[in-house]
Write a structure and sequence with these properties.
The protein has a 4-stranded mixed β-sheet with strand order 1-4-5-8. The protein has about 400 residues and is of the alpha+beta class. Helix content is about 40%, strand content about 15%.
Length: about 400
């Protein structure tokens, strides 16, 4: 059976459905069977949820399974694992690591979070101070991470820590997989402007990580983390949406159903944002086609920039359009949600939550530098600290 072309994938999908009827098969059993059939992410290698097929054929599989009523793996809940941890593990992980982590990651049995940002190392992530000291086959980690989405749900974390303070800041970092259930890991909620706490701060006190959970070489953590970050920006800004999908669709629906709220000025703004949202959608489609033939590049930073700006402007327009109704808010109860819902909540929630879009996943200021230097080829900003040992940097 040839599973590397469209017809082969249709046959393989039909065989999965015939052997595991979604109407009678438990959700987790179906997802495990789908992974084992190579239909989780078809471009991954055989045995790791894929078939080595072109990435561009994944939507075909998704469409066939959706039409049959098959369950999905709740990608919004496990987005960090799917969009950041998985491609990093695939590229830098050992065969043992790939086989241990990828299947439960994709099925959602194990949720992942990202332990990168710190109180003193956000935009300048390479200045991080969390320390990892080696003792034989184990590393002892001490430090603090912040703005960690989903840490309260996560079993595993991708973690970068400083392993050599004698080297310049980009060179003395190593990348690990951290078990969030280990002793010494403490997760505290960070209540946001929305009233919720999807973010957390994480304290690491004497956490023991086996060297077998290191990704990449010692001191190569920045290179490995760059892969994670490039995939993160594509995952945030380049998610596949239909035409007039996402937040612009919500605003357009309000316009159509509430004619009494319309003004000429709001109409012009809505038209402008609709066109920009469509341009961003098509740009995302082009970026996904580029991904089909290689790793994500810095172009994803531009898409993430656009995503943040559009979300904030669309949500602001929606609040103005709704007038007094736009000032209402559904629920200020402190809770720790499993994800972000930009379209299923009210306009007040969207307006407040989108303020974080220009911070999370790389601040807009940092992304502008990346686009300027790596996409447009402009001269880099002067940096006097790149060749200075981390321990000698002013703090």
């Amino acid at each position: 059976m040839n599973a590397l072309d469209a017809d082969g994938l249709r046959r393989r999908t039909a065989a999965l459905l015939a052997g595991h009827d979604p109407a009678t098969t438990g959700r987790l059993d179906f997802l495990r069977a789908r992974f084992d059939a190579g239909l989780a992410w078809v471009h991954y290698p055989e045995g790791l949820g894929g078939l080595g097929a072109p990435r561009s054929l994944q939507p075909l599989v998704e469409g066939e399974l959706a039409a049959a009523g098959a369950p999905d793996n709740d990608p919004r809940r496990i987005g960090i694992g799917l969009g950041m941890a998985a491609p990093t593990i695939l590229r830098y992980g050992t065969e043992e690591q790939k086989r241990r982590f990828l299947r439960p990651l994709w099925t959602g049995e194990e949720v992942w979070c990202q332990l990168f940002s710190e109180p003193g190392a956000g935009s300048d992530l390479a200045a991080l101070a969390t320390r990892a000291v080696r003792d034989g086959d184990t590393w002892t980690v001490d430090g603090q991470k912040v703005w960690t989405s989903g840490a309260h749900l996560a079993r595993w974390a991708i973690l970068i820590a400083r392993t050599d303070p004698e080297l310049p800041k980009h060179q003395g970092i190593t990348y690990f997989v951290c078990d969030m259930s280990d002793p010494g890991v403490e997760v505290r909620p960070l209540r946001q402007i929305t009233g919720e706490a999807e973010f957390n701060e994480v304290f690491l006190s004497g956490v023991r990580i086996p060297d077998a959970h290191r990704l990449g070489g010692v001191g190569e953590g920045w290179r490995v983390a760059s892969t994670t970050l490039m995939n993160e920006r594509v995952a945030i800004g380049g998610a596949r949406v239909p035409r007039e999908g996402g937040m612009i669709g919500v605003a357009a629906e309000t316009w159509r159903t509430r004619p009494e709220l319309r003004t000429h000025e709001l109409h012009q703004r809505l038209l402008t944002l609709w066109v920009e949202a469509e341009v961003a959608r098509l740009t995302g489609e082009r970026l996904r086609q580029q991904l089909a033939v290689g790793q994500p590049g810095p172009e994803g930073s531009g898409l993430k920039l656009s995503f943040a700006r559009l979300n904030q402007e669309i949500s602001g327009l929606e609040v103005e359009l709704l007038a007094a109704d736009g000032l209402t808010y559904d629920d200020w109860t402190m809770r720790r949600p499993e994800g972000v819902d930009f379209t299923g909540r009210d306009a007040g929630y969207r307006y407040l939550r989108t303020k974080g879009n220009s911070i999370e996943g790389g601040t807009s200021e940092v992304l502008l530098n990346i686009v300027a230097e790596r996409v447009l080829g402009l001269p880099p900003e002067p940096r006097t600290d790149k060749d200075v040992a981390w321990k000698d940097l002013p703090r």
